[in-house]
Design brief:
Layout (H helix, E strand, L loop, with lengths): L4 E5 L6 H10 L17 H10 L2 H12 L5 E4 L5 H13 L3 E6 L3 H14 L4 H6 L13 H24 L5 E4 H6 L2 H14 L9 H9 L15 H9 L10 E7 L7 E5 L3 E2 L5 E3 L1 E6 L7 E6 L3 E3 L1 E4 L2 H4 L12 E3 L3 E2 L3 E7 L2 E12 L1
Parallel strand pairs: 1-2, 1-3, 3-4
Antiparallel strand pairs: 5-16, 6-9, 7-8, 8-14, 9-13, 10-11, 10-15, 12-13, 15-16
Helix pairs in contact: 2-3, 3-4, 4-7, 5-11, 9-10
């Protein structure tokens, strides 16, 4: 069932293209992005609250905004906690879905944020229309301010996320790294599942549009982010912050089964996060030295079974078997599935070979 949704994000998190695609696919009406910013359509609500600190009036105003169930992309980092929490509570009560989109690592976001704050360039449109004074690069970054800002952002995202969990919401979570830095197949699985979870299957992007969305590149200004005098200091200190993690890391213990009849190289790598908290995605390698080997990989668990996406490009693995065309297409990846013990089988014609048993746990 299609639902209205809020994208909870931070500035310079790289979600503009995905957010625009989700808004376009939905039958609910979109409004101006970051509508509660001071210069935006609902900025007056925040200004009024800052003036009188009236939480009841703030709740009333937000309820009126949400009653028509508009789609919202919300940069929570620059908003007071009172607004963020009331927005979470009221939207959850009205049946909204919640999508968190953030960067796990702060370095690139803070470099990008500093560049935008100093130059006024906030997107591809600005990059071509705003004239940047080169003298700005002779200034120093306020590193202390940006590091403290990142720490506050992490407190805010945890507060909102935990508040929604307490209300028994099931937030969706995507990170910049998973969408744009992981393997393309992983990014594709995450994006398609997000469309499905929001009830937007009928408007699923084509493979061509997905590739443009996920690998189309940024605004073309990244090379300038480190041009400021003390950029190296910001890089070093931001790396010390480590990663943001809203969810527990999952691990799988795999018991491989070897069958002497088959010359198989099979590996399951550690699981990747799904969009939902209780979901994972697995990937790995399957290789059989029979050049004409026609097979499918099936994952079986207590409540369901499905085929894995196999025969994906594996250029590094193929170096071990330079004379084998099959070794060049040995990777596989699964759809998102609820974490639980599972088995993987290789199926070829009437032949069915059990490859592994696996248990899933968390840290």
């Amino acid at each position: 069932m299609e639902m209205p949704f809020i994208i909870w994000t931070l500035r310079r998190s790289g979600g503009t293209n995905l957010g625009a695609a989700l808004f376009k696919a939905s039958s609910f009406s979109g409004i101006q992005h970051e509508p509660f910013n001071g210069d935006r359509v609902f900025g007056y609500i925040v200004q009024q609250w800052k003036k009188d600190k009236n939480d009841d009036l703030l709740r009333k105003n937000i309820r009126e905004v949400l009653i028509s169930k508009p789609l919202i992309k919300h940069c929570f980092e620059i908003m007071p906690d009172a607004l963020n929490l009331i927005l979470a509570e009221e939207s959850q009560a009205l049946g909204y879905q919640h999508l968190f989109l953030y960067r796990e690592y702060a370095t690139d976001r803070l470099l990008s944020l500093n560049y935008s704050l100093q130059t006024g360039v906030w997107g591809k449109g600005h990059a071509s229309s705003v004239s940047v004074n080169k003298e700005v690069f002779n200034s120093e970054i306020d590193v202390d301010h940006l590091i403290q800002h990142e720490r506050q952002c992490r407190k805010k995202i945890r507060l909102i996320y935990d508040t929604l969990l307490h209300m028994e919401a099931q937030p969706l979570v995507l990170t910049f790294e998973n969408l744009y830095r992981g393997s393309y197949e992983y990014s594709k699985v995450l994006t398609k599942h997000t469309f499905s979870l929001l009830g937007l299957e009928r408007e699923m992007p084509s493979d061509e549009k997905l590739f443009t969305m996920l690998r189309g590149g940024g605004q073309g200004t990244k090379s300038k982010y480190t041009s400021f005098l003390n950029a190296n200091e910001l890089i070093a200190r931001s790396k010390l912050l480590g990663a943001v993690g809203l969810r527990k890391k999952q691990e799988i213990n795999v018991n491989y089964l070897r069958n002497e009849k088959h010359n198989i190289d099979f590996r399951v790598w550690q699981p990747m996060q799904g969009v939902l908290d209780d979901e994972i995605i697995i990937s790995g390698l399957f290789y059989n030295n029979k050049q004409d080997y026609d097979y499918k990989l099936k994952l079986v668990k207590a409540s369901e079974e499905f085929y894995l996406h196999s025969s994906l490009p594996s250029p590094r693995f193929s170096e071990s078997y330079p004379d084998s065309s099959a070794a060049s297409f040995a990777r596989f990846i699964s759809p998102s599935f609820k974490k639980s013990p599972f088995q993987v089988y290789c199926i070829s014609g009437v032949d069915k070979v059990l490859l592994c048993h696996a248990d899933v746990g968390g840290q």
